[in-house]
Amino acid sequence: MAHAVADRLDILMTVLLAYIKNICYVNGTLELTRTKELYRDLIAVFDKLILPTHASCHVQYVIFYLCSFRLGLAEAFLEHLWKKMQSPSNPAVIRQTAAGYIGSFLARAKFLPIQTVKACLDLLVPWLHQYIHSQDAGSKAFCDVSLHGPFYATCQAVFYTLVFRHRQMVEGNLRKGLAYLQMLNFERIVMCQLNPLKVCLPAVTNMFAAITRKYQLVFCYTIIERNNRQMLPVVRSSLGGDSLTTNANPLDSFFPFDPYLLKRSGKMIQPIYQVWEEVSVCDVGGARQTVKKDSVTEEDDDFLRGESLQSEAVVGFISGSFESHSVGSPPVAFLQRPF
Questions:
Q1: Residue 234 burial by CB count (10 A; 0-12/13-18/19+): exposed, middle or buried?
Q2: Which of 121, 206, 248, 249 sits at a 20 to 30 Å CA gap from 38?
Q3: What is the dihedral sign for C-alpha 263, 28, 322, 42?
Q4: For 241-263, what is each residue's pLDDT tens digit?
Q5: Can you tell me the mean pLDDT for 73-86?
Q6: Phi first, then psi: what are they for 29, rounded to 5°?
Q7: Contact by Cβ (8 Å): 320, 84
Q8: Contact status, residue 265 vs residue 10, Cβ threshold 8 Å
Q9: Cβ–Cβ under 8 Å, residues 311 and 55
C-alpha cells in the first residue's frame, strides 16, 4: 500500500487474524474450549481499549472475524453490546458507541442469519418505545443529543440495520415480512417529540425514509423537509459547541464495521462481509436492479459518502468484565444457547 503506516497495520492485522484462526482451528476443526478462552480475552481487550476509542479503524475486526467462526460467538458479542447499551450505569458515550457497534455488526456480518437480526431488533425497538413512553410525560421531551444520546444512537442503529437487511426480512413471504415490519411501529418512533430523524446521519435517514415509504410503514419526508428548513438550536453535540445544521453529525457517530480497506488482511474479511448494494430511490421503489459488489473498496461501498464523521480524540476508558451482567437486563433467550 502507498501509505507506510497503513501497510504496517495491514501486515500486523494479517498476522493477528492468522493467529486467531490457528488458535481456534486444529486440523480444520473448531476447538470450542480454546475458542471461548480467546473470545473472553479479546472481549476484555475490546472493553478496555477498542470500545472506548472513538472511530477505531480496522482493529475492531479481530472480534468480527472471531465471531464468524460460530453463531454462538456472534450472539454472545451482540448480547454483550446490548447490555452495555441499555444499562444506565454506563457513560452515555459508551452506550452510544455500543449501539453503533450493534447496528454496524447486524448490517455487515454476512454470517448472521436474518433470525438473529430480527431477534436483536425485537430487543432494540421495544427499548426505543419504552424510552419514548418514559419521556412523553416529562419535561425533557425535546430534541437534545446531550440528554438523549443513547436513544438517538439506537434509533440510528435500527434504521441502519433496516436499510441493509430489509430485503431479507420480506423475501420468501412478503405478507409475513410486512406484518413483522408493521409490528415494529416505526411511525411512533419517527413521529415522537424527540425527533430522531433530526439527529441521525442524512444518508441513513434518507434511505430509511425511502424504504419505509416503499413498504408504507411511515412517511418520513414531511419531517425531513421540516428539519432541513430550520437550524437546530436545541441540538447539542456531546463534545459541546454551537448549534448544528442537519447536514452535520450531532451524534459524532461512526459505524465501526464500515468497509475494510487493508488489502492483504482484507482477503480474510471479504468472504464474511456484507458490502453495500447500490440502491437508488427508484430501485427502492422497484424500478431498477440492485448492483452487487464483488469486492470491498472505498469507491465501491459509498453508503456514507460525504458524511462528516468527526473524530476528535480518544474518549476515556472504562473497565468491563466478560462475566458481568447489568442490573435490570431483560432475559435474552435467543442468546443463551451454548457456543
A1: middle
A2: 121
A3: negative
A4: 555 444 468 888 899 999 999 99
A5: 97
A6: -115, 135
A7: yes
A8: yes
A9: yes
Q: Would you say residue 316 has pLDDT above 50? A: no
pLDDT of residue 287: 37
Q: Is the pLDDT of residue 219 over 80?
A: yes
Least confident residue range of 52-56, 145-149, 247-251, 305-309: 305-309
| Residue 149 grid cell | 444520546
Q: Which of 267, 291, 273, 218 shows the shortest CA–CA distance to 108?
A: 273
Cα–Cα distance measured from residue 282 to residue 318, given in angstroms and rounded to the nearest whole number: 45
Apex 211 CA angle, 309 and 275, nearest 5: 55
How far apart are the C-alpha atoms of 270 and 273, rounded to whole Å?
5
CB contact at 8 A, 61 and 104: no
CA 74 to chain CA centroid, Å, is 14
Tell me how long the chain is: 339
Largest Cα separation within the chain, whole Å, is 62
Rounded CA-CA distance 119/198 in Å is 27
Helix H or strand E segment including 29 = strand 29-30
8: phi then psi, degrees, rounded to nearest 5: -65, -40
Residue 269: closest CA among 301, 238, 244: 301
Distances from the Cα of 266 to the Cαs of 53, 275, 276, 293, 319, in angstroms?
A: 22, 13, 16, 15, 30
**Average pLDDT of every residue of the chain:** 82
On whether the CB atoms of residues 290 and 278 are closer than 8 A, the answer is yes
